Amino acid sequence: MADSINNSNKSNKKKETQTLLLGRYDVGKLLGHGTFAKVYHARNVKTGDSVAIKVIDKEKILKGGLIAHIKREISILRRVRHPNIVQLFEVMATKAKIFFVMEFVRGGELFNKVAKGRLKEEVARKYFQQLISAVGFCHARGVYHRDLKPENLLLDENGDLKVSDFGLSAVSDQIRQDGLFHTFCGTPAYVAPEVLARKGYDAAKVDIWSCGVILFVLMAGYLPFHDQNVMAMYKKIYKGEFRCPRWFSPDLTRLLIKLLDINPETRMTIPEIMENRWFKKGFKHVKFYIEDDKLCNVMDAEDDVGSVSDQSMSESESEIETRRRAATLPRPASLNAFDIISFSPGFDLSGLFDEGGEGERFVSGAPVPKIISKLEEIAKVVSFTVRKKDCRVSLEGSREGVKGPLTIAAEIFELTPSLVMVEVKKKGGNKEEYDEFCNRELKPGLQNLMREESESESAAVAAAAAAAAAADLELPPHLPSDSE
């Protein structure tokens, strides 16, 4: 009896080990499958969070010559992180499989909702607004989906839309010398007429056409271009032959005529859609930021956004505010000898910025609240958004680019009870824009703080020397000793 129980326990443990993917994910039921991949529901054993894991067969993609395709999809998903786009958390691999660990979207496909009948206008408008927000975000980063349809639009538990399946998407560096894409792709009923013409196309305008078809389907419950015969359907698409039902409002009809314009040159653009009267009703721009590799909605951190400017206060009020902040802020994280060594080769922790490496650093004797206030002041000059959490400050620009808005993170560390180090890093955006911001705004502003603290440089050297002594390390030859 005991032997049978032990054997049963061993069998259960073996089963658990087999379903535990790389020791991190408990793999559950199959959610769906395609030619090259299967998608499973799974649970992160450490956090308990649900995820979707896309399992790709390496042998199949090698035979199909799709390695570059898979690499491009990974690159695209890391580039387009947005609240209305399904997130890629990580990619893992074994000898035989590739695993995409992705956000698990509980609500299923938008297609299932439309299949039950047309949607109410306010519901369709909300989904369309979220779709355009996501598509505009992708286009600003040089990413074009090229297969937008209700089956690739998912709904989360809150009823918000999530764009998925970037398998056919393209990036701007695939454009030929004529400035156009030439790959024929997409789903027949949602494909733009210029793609059918096979003469090259603007992928942004192709996505907008698909968005127009999706909006029509949401509001009508059926396709604008439909025929049992595919070639007959293509002719209707090519000629732009469709009629809006009588229940469509005049504003909606006018919008659809502009979205489903067979001439891509005169078809609406994303900015024009966002200024349209029907679209703008109840529309709110999606505001979010990325912290610790996670998407955070601005609403979740409204208390951390913005600040009270010291310039609007009297001197005494400013001192009171600084003391109040000092009392509420936690103590900065301390650096040990090894931290200091890793931060700056040769213990060069003077008040000058370190031009090499990923981050730029300086040492100051100024109070932490004063440093944070200075960062806020710099951000205000260039209209950057400020987010604060403990001794970390994030500065985010509003100008979109291929790599998103410029985002800079500053973190304050304690060297000694009276001395801190500020480390500044680029978290997002264009490097040239970052360099320009650092040289024009950030460095001059923070250097003023360093000049106020005349003993910072010598104190930094002393801190490095003390750290080295504590770690029983030899000082590099160029670091001055106490006798020099």
What is the terminal separation in angstroms? 81 Å
| Uncertain stretches of 5 or more adjacent residues | 10-17, 300-321, 344-357, 452-456, 473-484
Strand order of the largest sheet: 1-2-3-4-6-5
Number of domains: 3
Helix content range of the residues, please? 25-40%
The outline comes out as globular
Largest sheet: 6 strands, antiparallel
Mean pLDDT across every amino acid position: 76
Give the name of the CATH superfamily of the largest domain.
Answer: Kinase associated domain 1, KA1
Radius of gyration: 28 Å
The CATH first-level class of the largest domain comes to: Alpha Beta
What share of residues are in beta strands?
15-25%
Continuous helix count: 16
What features would you describe in this structure?
The chain has 484 residues and is of the alpha+beta class. The chain has helices spanning 2-19, 58-63, 67-79, 110-115, 121-140, 193-197, 203-220, 230-239, 250-259, 270-274, 277-280, 315-328, 337-343, 368-381, 431-452, 456-470, and strands spanning 20-21, 25-33, 37-44, 50-57, 88-93, 97-103, 143-144, 153-155, 161-163, 170-171, 288-291, 294-297, 333-334, 359-364, 385-389, 392-396, 407-416, 419-428. A six-stranded antiparallel β-sheet has the order 1-2-3-4-6-5. Strands 13, 14, 15, 16, 17 and 18 form a six-stranded mixed β-sheet that branches. A two-stranded antiparallel sheet has the order 7-10. A hairpin with a 2-residue loop joins strand 15 and strand 16 (392-396). Helix 13 crosses helix 16 and helix 14 packs across helix 15. The chain is globular and about 80 Å long. It starts with a helix and ends in a 14-residue tail after the last helix.
